[in-house]
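Hey forum,

I'm writing up a methods section and want to include a predicted complex as supplementary material. The small molecule is S-adenosylmethionine. I've pasted the protein sequence and the SMILES. Can someone with a working setup run it? I'll credit the forum in the acknowledgements.
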Amino acid sequence: MEDYRDVNRANWDDRVAAHAASPDYAVSRFTDDPSFLSEVVSFDRARLGDIARLDAVHLQCHIGTDTVSLARLGAKMTGLDFSAPALEQGRRLAEAVGVDVEFVESDLYGAPDALGRERFDLVYTGIGALCWLPDIRRWAEVVASLLRPGGRLFIREGHPVLWSLSDPPREDGLLVIEYPYFEQAEPMVWDEGGTYVETDQVFTHNVTHEWNHGIGEIVSAVLAAGLELTALEEHDSVPWDALPGQMTDIGGGEFRLTDRPERLPHTYTLQARRPL
Ligand SMILES: C[S@@+](CC[C@H](N)C(=O)[O-])C[C@H]1O[C@@H](n2cnc3c(N)ncnc32)[C@H](O)[C@@H]1O
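Reply by user p_vandermeer:
Happy to help. Structure tokens for the complex are below, copy them as they are.
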């Protein structure tokens, strides 16, 4: 079988231009408005607190919209991703808005070698990051190795219950668990032409290999890597239209299940700290 990284990278590389041009990523708003922040980072802001002057890395930073937003909040940002075209977009955006961000090309599991160990006060990641990784324990080890003593992990991510639901959503509105909730050795293999932003672009690399990781597995991985859990919140909204036809746009880039949203944990925010 082809390496999952090659398959997934081809899929991501293919979608970069469409994402950079889409209203969802709102790239032009960063240049139009010097105080503009991505809606994802705006949601996180109260929980992030003051990040000014922190050495921070955004793992799986994609086209850098959240990375640049964190830089606008005063953090000294590094963005890491395995997609060269995504990083190129990130560099272009950072240069256009005049913020200093270092963008580094690497597979997630190669991040400690690519970036150096114990370098960061803050590791930020999420919103469609963990599903590309086969081994949550190795991910947590990577995060822990990047953090200085006292440094923090901040992740807001799609909830594993949401990832496990039938896709496309059922017409009767019932939420049905169809896919693995727990991490599996074998990936879920998808072959889908579109992407999660509005676009007319036609893509050629449509196969992806993805994994789910249960909340208990994520928390256990973070603890096993030597971090202390400081916060775990589940949210009733998600920053993309995760169940098309069944979600309401509630503003601020967030979507919520229209019918009885209290049934579904949509996303979660987990924070952890490397002990001093
Ligand atoms: C949905 S984006 C997440 C970033 C951010 N939430 C956003 O939407 O801008 C997922 C990113 O993960 C990257 N990625 C996927 N697998 C990776 C891997 N094994 N190593 C490094 N980056 C990876 C992709 O290139 C993509 O840019």
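Some notes you might quote in the supplement: The first helix runs from residue 4 to 21. The two ends are 43 Å apart (CA to CA).
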